């Protein structure tokens, strides 16, 4: 199994992901939200690029369609939820459809549409993601959503964690950047001690969202592996 990494949503190219299984990561916080919502019974998640598109879809049925997401880490005016995974509990999301737009994560998901498989990953479901990748048996590209088109420490460290599990479970052929992610993770297994240097981590901390940070940095607390097909994310 070949394993490669793309460092931001802006760096996704069709030739890099074609016929491969892609894992989209945005641990702070879009993919952590998606994994949590799906695990808590959300029927499906529809990722979109713009606020207007999200509102138009949700207007079809506001009883069953929820609006969630952020711009610059803040809740979008008129939306039901922000980008905090802690808001997406069973009582609020079970049986509902989430229409979601975020600064980085949903862009990365949409830009990965030409991949053979699109899996939604985070620290909180990393081990389950690796199990799914081994079942699929394809070459893998881990897409880091990044921050505003730039490299992000938090997503890169999560990539390293996923690679570390894959390496223990199957034979892997790592690209140079994948090898670098593995090395950084193996030397920073107490992930918060390193993630705290990420600019996006600092921004969320400045907003006082400490519980979000604690939650998103946990390893393997969820077994759900959401997958995106034809623009819709469900639990397969």
UniProtKB/TrEMBL annotation:
Entry EC no(s): 3.1.3.71
Keywords from the named record: Hydrolase, Magnesium
Q: Which cofactor does it need?
A: Mg(2+)
Enzyme group, top EC level?
A: hydrolase
Which domain of life does the UniProt lineage start with? Bacteria
Q: Which Pfam families match?
A: 2-ph_phosp (PF04029)
Q: Which InterPro entries match?
A: ComB-like, ComB-like_sf
Catalytically driven reaction(s) = (2R)-O-phospho-3-sulfolactate + H2O = (2R)-3-sulfolactate + phosphate
Q: Which residues form the signal peptide?
A: none
Name the Gene Ontology molecular function terms of this record.
2-phosphosulfolactate phosphatase activity; magnesium ion binding; sulfopyruvate decarboxylase activity
Q: Does the keyword Magnesium apply?
A: yes
What family name appears in the similarity comment?
Belongs to the ComB family.
Q: Show the NCBIfam families listed in the entry.
A: PRK00886.1-4
Name the UniProt record assigns to this protein: Probable 2-phosphosulfolactate phosphatase
Please spell out the taxonomic lineage of the organism that makes this protein.
Bacteria, Bacillati, Bacillota, Clostridia, Eubacteriales
